[in-house]
Amino acid sequence: MSxxxxxxxxxxxxxxxILLIILLVxxxxxxxxxxxxxxxSRGEKVAVVELLGPIYDSRRIxxxxxxxxxxxxxxxxxxxxxxxxxxVAASQExxxxxxRVRDGGKPIVVSMxxxxxxxxxxxxxxxxxxxxNPGTTTGSIGVMAEFPNVKELLDKVGIRFEIxxxxxxxxxxxxxxxxxxADRRYLQSWVDDxxxxxxxxxxxxxxLSREKVLKLADGRVFTGKQAHELGLVDLLGDxxxxxxxxxxxxxxxxxxxxxKIRRRRITLFDLLFQQIxxxxxxxxxMTLRYSLN
Length: 293
What we know:
Distance between the termini: 42 Å
Helix content: 40-55%
CATH topology of the domain at 41-144 and 216-291: 2-enoyl-CoA Hydratase, Chain A, domain 1
CATH superfamily of the domain at 41-144 and 216-291: 2-enoyl-CoA Hydratase, Chain A, domain 1
Largest sheet: 8 strands, mixed
Strand content: 15-25%
């Protein structure tokens, strides 16, 4: 028994150390990404802002749009999106950053990659023009919240959590207790309100009737070709066409100079951290997501 206990303690220390290292590396890499955009003042440029992967945090994207929006040599921005969506608040913050730069008079063209769905579509709505590949996966207009429930498992092993709370709905979504009918009504209203905010943005930005958007906003995904026919995107085309369109909209003659922040290559370590981060966020409960899955 003592050896087993020592083994479990050692395993716990090892796992804790690995998680600490992952969090430290993530913090350092994010801090480096926020150091700012450095541009020379020579030549007219098209800046490229990339959103690749799930939307967990908005700070880097918002910072890039803010700085490119103020820099006089940047005449237009291509927002390259390859994302299945993510957090509601983070998606909203990115959308607002895109919209502010657009409303400030700087042209923004979205270039959709393989997938730009749910939150990935939400953030695209802030641009002047949305361009998708015919085979892009987009749409998935909707909201979801997930709550893990381990009560049955804990019952089997004889573990019970006693919860003391100040009010009826405090602690709703706890993994240690089942939902009541009142809990479900309360959480459904929470999700419905965030869903309504998504629909409002699509109605306003795409100039579609609310009735039409509601018919499309049932979580379905569409190809880029279908989305174009439905009015969810403006044009069909690839990344290079988006660059050319942005340069034209920005009044650039000839081949534009392309600027973007150079990213380090994504490693298995990065993917591992991304998965861990997603699990941690999921276990934390009470989190709304504009997400494909």
